[in-house]
Amino acid sequence: MYTLALETSCDETSAAVLRDGRTILSNIISTQVPIHRQFGGVVPEIASRQHIEYVMPIIKEALDTAGLTLADMDHIGVTYGPGLVGALLVGVAAAKALSFAADKPLVGVNHMEGHIFANFLSHPDLEPPFLALVVSGGHTQLVQIDGYNSFTLLGQTRDDAAGEAFDKIARVMGYPYPGGPQIDALAKKGNPDAIVFPKALHEKHNFEFSFSGLKSAVLNYLHTQEQRGEAYNAEDVAASFQKTVVDTLVEKTMDAAGYIGAQKIVVAGGVSANSGLAAAMAQACEKGGYAFYRPEPVLCTDNGAMIGCRAYYMALDGRFADLTLNAKPALAITSC
């Protein structure tokens, strides 16, 4: 079974072709990072226009790389939320047009579920059930995965996502977008215990997150140092900030794993590429006796292959969409 999948939720235009849901035949990604870097973050209108320009050539390249045609596809998957509404609309419109023209079934995919399913592509042996920690620029969630189409949302951020906090702190410190890799690189050279920053919602069995207070605490520290005319050690700030975020993510994940009786833990989303989080989670899983999985770096960020994997399992379950499918920028993972 062949799947063509499109991903245009933010600033990557991507198309992929998969065989039987877990074999990647092509995964073409066009990033807009150099374009948005000059603005310090993603500009939605510019992102939408770039998607319009790139989406059809990227689809053609994905099919050509796979050595297949649109006629060979069994269905077409596309991200329809969450994300930037204009960006999502480009992918949804392209997928609907292809679905109609080629008479192929359409599958609407939740972007966050796609991130979780990236682990199936990197780990052929992985099967449900497991606990998933999803950490990205816009979301931080703990999701119980009972089956390929059976999820329970345990908790999510009440305000800022972890990735959003990374980007904001990096920007204030004068580092370019995206900020996550900048903070990660600095943290490797700093003292993680140099500055104590606060944690929020750290009560036992509270699986929700909040990073707005932490973000404010770091910003206040930087502004205070500036007002006093005192220099600060950027590496120590980055290391202390990252440690607080990572400790929060790991502690809540371990608590949730014990609470639901999970034996396997996966991380997903752009922040799963963070070396500090990967090392701390691997160590905690080894100590707790959990099997640990995370996608390879290229599958941590937004990509069509992860959407194709999710679309495949939805198609097997008969979860198709019709041509009224529309973008849903605030689409949530719902328990099912």
Folded structure, characterized:
The protein has 336 residues and is of the alpha/beta class. It folds into two domains: 2-116 and 299-316, 2-Layer Sandwich (Nucleotidyltransferase, domain 5); 127-294, Nucleotidyltransferase, domain 5 (2-Layer Sandwich). It is built from eleven helices and ten strands. It has helices at residues 33-37, 44-66, 85-102, 111-122, 162-172, 179-187, 212-228, 234-260, 275-288, 297-300, 304-316, and strands spanning 2-7, 12-19, 23-31, 75-81, 106-110, 130-135, 140-147, 150-156, 264-268, 291-293. Strands 3-2-1-4-5 form a five-stranded mixed beta sheet, sandwiched between helices. Helix 5 (162-172) crosses helix 6 (179-187), helix 6 crosses helix 8 (234-260) and helix 8 packs parallel to helix 9 (275-288). 51% of the residues are buried.
Draw up the topology in text.
Blueprint: E1 2-7, E2 12-19, E3 23-31, H1 33-37, H2 44-66, E4 75-81, H3 85-102, E5 106-110, H4 111-122, E6 130-135, E7 140-147, E8 150-156, H5 162-172, H6 179-187, H7 212-228, H8 234-260, E9 264-268, H9 275-288, E10 291-293, H10 297-300, H11 304-316
Parallel strand pairs: 1-4, 4-5, 6-9, 9-10
Antiparallel strand pairs: 1-2, 2-3, 6-7, 7-8
Helix pairs in contact: 2-3, 4-11, 5-6, 5-7, 6-8, 8-9
What are the key terms here?
five-stranded mixed β-sheet, 46% helix, 336 residues, alpha/beta, 10 strands, Nucleotidyltransferase, domain 5, 2 domains
